[in-house]
Specification:
The protein is α+β, with helices and mostly antiparallel strands and 327 residues long. The chain has helices at residues 2-9, 13-35, 38-54, 65-83, 132-138, 143-154, 159-166, 170-187, 201-215, 219-224, 244-255, and strands at residues 226-234, 237-242, 265-273, 276-284, 291-302, 305-312, 325-326. Helix 1 crosses helix 2 (13-35).
Length: 327
């Protein structure tokens, strides 16, 4: 590894490409946590690797090549957020703030290509640090506090390592973390005890029932799956619905008799996003030969009920390797 890093720093394109590909997946996750947008994370990972190649001679070997790439990626994200400042928008109904730029992350891109047994430094992406609820909560933090919290509490870097990466003193890192943690906790939903790494068998069964309710336009079956305080949001649209009655009423209006979609046939395809169950929904108008991409619903469950549905438009299908139409 060390000789490969030295070769990359001295302009060996093959060595650099090998290292870049080895770390691309986790740099993508890091940028995604910083930004909350999958598309922006993709762009900034590319910018990170271009910047790393351009300034490869600055790698002196005082840290690992991975840490050096993280430094560049973090600064690329901070530069972007300086140029494009944004804040979650307050919900008019008094519910959680809306993060209009939020996008889902395909589970198929969460695992490294390398074998973990031969890559001891590889970070396993824990479910609670990639769920949409965490992504929404962390967007409430100022950018530099967000970076400190991710490096310290998510990646497990020491205060000294974090300070070196961000150009901050250890005292400043500790202060930023102390300010960030309460804000994060305040915006995170209450959780059950323990979080499985991937959707459980029970969650997959609940997702199947969720898809069946859609395909049959069965509003009663859909409402039965909802928790009392369920929340439905649809980024980037500034709409949200809170509570079983309100979400069920929205579903009735969207899918029930008299709605524009009532006479259309639904087909659901199970997928996984942010280590959560998700449904890619397709619709077919009467007489049409194929189903058209309509919505990607990412679902969060607690105690056997749906507590949150985040609905994204069909523009995210490509990132999940999903077709635009089904026959």
């Amino acid at each position: 590894m060390e000789s490969e890093s030295v070769a990359a720093a001295h302009g060996d394109e093959a060595a650099f490409a090998g290292l870049a590909e080895r770390y691309r997946w986790e740099l993508r996750v890091h940028c995604y946590r910083m930004l909350g947008s999958f598309d922006e994370a993709e762009d900034l990972v590319q910018e990170t690797l271009l910047r790393a190649w351009r300034y490869r001679g600055s790698f002196q070997g005082r840290s690992t090549f991975r840490a050096w790439l993280y430094r560049i990626a973090t600064n690329v994200c901070l530069d972007f957020l300086d140029r494009h400042p944004r804040q979650p928008a307050a919900d008019a109904s008094g519910g959680p703030a809306e993060v209009g730029w939020l996008q889902p992350f395909p589970d198929r891109l969460l695992e490294p290509m390398a074998d973990r047994e031969t890559e001891p430094e590889t970070v396993v992406v824990a479910r609670e640090t990639i769920e949409l609820a965490f992504l929404v909560a962390i967007q409430h933090l100022p950018a530099r506090q967000r970076a400190v919290l991710i490096l310290r509490d998510v990646l497990g870097w020491s205060a000294a390592e974090t300070g070196e990466l961000l150009g901050m003193s250890v005292a400043a890192v500790k202060s930023a973390l102390q300010r960030a943690r309460p804000v994060l906790r305040a915006h995170l939903p209450q959780r059950g005890s323990g979080q499985a790494m991937v959707p459980t068998t029970q969650e997959q069964e609940l997702l199947r029932r969720f898809m069946t309710a859609h395909e049959r336009a069965d509003i009663a079956a859909f409402a039965e799956l909802l928790s009392a305080d369920v929340r439905l949001s649809m980024p980037p649209l500034p709409y949200s619905f809170v509570g079983r009655a309100e979400v069920a009423a929205f579903a009735e209006k969207a899918l029930g008799p008299g709605s524009a979609l009532h006479r259309r046939q639904w087909r659901g395809v199970p997928v996984a996003a942010n280590r959560q169950p998700a449904m890619a929904g397709y619709i077919r108008r009467p007489g049409e030969p194929s189903y058209q991409a309509q919505v990607l619903n990412v679902v969060r469950f607690e105690h056997g009920r749906i507590t949150e549905i985040t609905a994204f438009g069909p523009d995210v299908f490509d990132a999940f390797g999903l077709p635009a139409t089904l026959s």
